[in-house]
Specification:
Blueprint lengths: L1 E4 L1 H9 L6 E3 L3 H6 L6 E2 L10 H10 L4 E5 L6 H10 L4 E5 L2 H5 L3 E6 L6 E8 L4 E8 L4 E5 L5 H10 L3 E6 L11 H8 L3 E4 L12 E3 L4 E4 L2 E7 L8 E5 L3 E5 L11 H24 L7 E4 L21 E2 H7 L7 H10 L8 H8 L9 H7 L9
Parallel strand pairs: 1-5, 2-3, 2-4, 4-5, 9-10, 10-11, 11-12, 16-17
Antiparallel strand pairs: 6-7, 7-8, 8-9, 13-14, 14-15, 15-16, 17-18
Helix pairs in contact: 8-10
Length: 383
């Protein structure tokens, strides 16, 4: 018979190390750019069905007859499963919602802190590697949401489970790889929404309260100090929390640094790289070595593996660790610029449209399906 499981249930099985004969029925190009670990691609068109070569591949991978199928959103994996059932397979499972639902999996991971009263949750979007934050003060229950994605319920749940109330919302910059939920969350809660003061230079038409270098945003007795951090974008702002944690957004990751041509273009990427070098060496790396870096993303490979750490575990490093481990940070300025501009990876899917939506110059897609389709795939914000 054909069964269904959710993306959450599939994640639990993969995390538990369960051996799955997992077949992805999307076209080869979609599979190659983004798929689940261990998945085998058997492109499926319901009008054509499976041929003998397809059946042989399935038999080779699923010798015990147990099959799990996934596609973009369930449209081809379901008829694929029924065709297998017609050919004698008695245990076929379809992942409900497919890769779209996989891209919407979230986990709220506690971050250990040394500051009395400081509470931090890292909200991980598993399929894309997006990392948002709830930062609060347990003594007053006040909190800020930083870089929430469009699934604002994930951030609200993370805050509620931590016993916190969101009193302000912050976007560190105009994101290029995913739809922000910042403005929507601020509107829903009727709280201030913040962007860097240079966001006006990017034709941002949303209402926001601008943040300048050195400004301090308070949540209860916890302070987030703004650090102007141009490079990935011109309006980028990082935040130093309680002089202990650095919310480094897309400036500094635990495995790389931010790419620069998404705003500056291929011709201006070198200019952005020089701004980024200055930000890194004059501001971020000047912080104490023990400062904990909490980035805005972790890179996700084509087969959905984190480049650093594991889903559900904190993605973090100290400034000292990164200086020791990232060779990019030891380069002089010219070599750094050459490295960032010489071998540029593929740009995030639909990034220009996503930027326009996040800047409020263009409306959000009218349906959840359209929004999911727009941002499907991993982030590509690291150099």
């Amino acid at each position: 018979m054909v069964n269904q499981i959710t993306a959450d249930e599939l994640a639990d099985r993969l995390d538990d190390g369960e051996a799955l004969a997992l077949f992805d029925t999307r076209p080869a190009d979609s599979f190659e750019s983004w798929h689940l670990p261990g998945a085998v691609n058997v492109p499926y068109d319901p009008r054509e069905g499976l041929d003998q070569d397809d059946f042989q591949r399935i038999r080779d991978e699923a010798a015990d007859g147990h099959v799990t199928a996934i596609c973009g959103k369930g449209l081809t994996s379901t008829p694929f499963a029924f065709e297998l059932e017609d050919h004698g397979y008695v245990d076929v499972t379809v992942v409900k919602g497919g890769m779209e639902d996989w891209g919407a999996l979230y986990e709220a991971v506690p971050i250990e802190t040394a500051t009395d009263g400081l509470v931090v949750r890292q909200v991980q979007r598993r399929g894309k590697g997006c990392l948002g934050y709830v930062v609060g003060d347990e003594r007053t229950d006040a909190a800020a949401a930083v870089d929430p994605t469009r699934r604002i319920d994930a951030v609200e749940v993370a805050a509620e489970e931590a016993g916190l109330t969101i009193e302000r919302v912050i976007d560190t910059h105009v994101h290029a790889d995913h739809l922000s939920g910042g403005r929507a969350l601020a509107d829903a809660l009727d709280v201030p929404y913040h962007l860097g003061e240079r966001a006006s230079e990017r034709d941002v038409t949303c209402d926001y309260e601008p943040v300048a270098d050195g400004d301090e945003l308070a949540v209860g007795d916890v302070t987030l100090r703004a650090i102007d951090a141009p490079g990935h974008t011109t309006e980028m702002v990082n935040y130093l929390v309680a002089d202990e944690l650095l919310l480094s957004s897309d400036t500094l990751f635990v495995e790389s640094v931010g790419r620069t041509e998404l705003q500056f273009g291929d011709e201006g990427a070198a200019e952005g790289a020089r701004l980024l070098y200055e930000t890194l060496h004059e501001k971020l790396l000047a912080l104490p070595d023990e400062t904990v870096v909490l980035p805005g993303h972790v890179s996700v490979s084509a087969d959905n593996r984190f480049a650093h750490g594991e889903p559900g575990a904190p993605i973090r490093a100290t400034i000292g660790d990164l200086v020791d481990d990232l060779d990019l940070l030891s380069l002089d300025e010219d070599a750094f610029v050459d490295r960032l501009t010489a071998d540029v990876s593929a740009k995030p899917a639909n990034y220009e449209e996503i930027i326009a939506i996040n800047a409020c110059r263009q409306s959000l897609p009218g349906t959840e399906e359209a929004a999911a389709e727009l941002e499907i795939g991993p982030n590509n914000c690291a150099a």
